[in-house]
Amino acid sequence: MGNTWQVQEAKSRFSELIERAEKEGPQTITRHGKPSAVVVSMAEYERLEKAGAEEKPNLIDFLLTSGPILDDFEIERDKDVGREINLD
User: Domain of 17: which CATH number?
Assistant: First the structure.
């Protein structure tokens, strides 16, 4: 069978699907012959989440390290002071 399951088969053999995800790695579920979902073990999911979190800089880190990028922008305040409004 490998690591590809049709939706019907995945539903009827869900316990086996989970067991294989834990032992053999990610299991692909197809719908109408096209990949639709992937089942991974909790350990693999946590590893992927941790790897993704390490790659995403937070805003402070981005601003502190993006000097050359921000240097290209010219920020000018609009000199328009608006219009007078008569409140009588």
Answer: 3.40.1620.10
Number of folded domains that form the chain: 1
36 sits in the region (left: phi over 0; alpha: psi -120 to 50; else beta) called alpha
The rounded average pLDDT for each run of 10 residues, N- to C-terminus, in the chain (88 residues) is 88 96 93 93 90 72 64 73 84
Q: How far is CA 64 from CA 44, 59, 61, 68, in A?
A: 32, 9, 5, 10
Which residues constitute the domain of residue 63? 4-70
In a domain, 42, yes or no: yes
With a threshold of 0.90, does the pTM exceed it?
no
Torsion angle of the four alpha carbons 37, 57, 42, 5, in this order, in degrees rounded to the nearest 10: 20
Q: Domain for residue 29, yes or no? A: yes
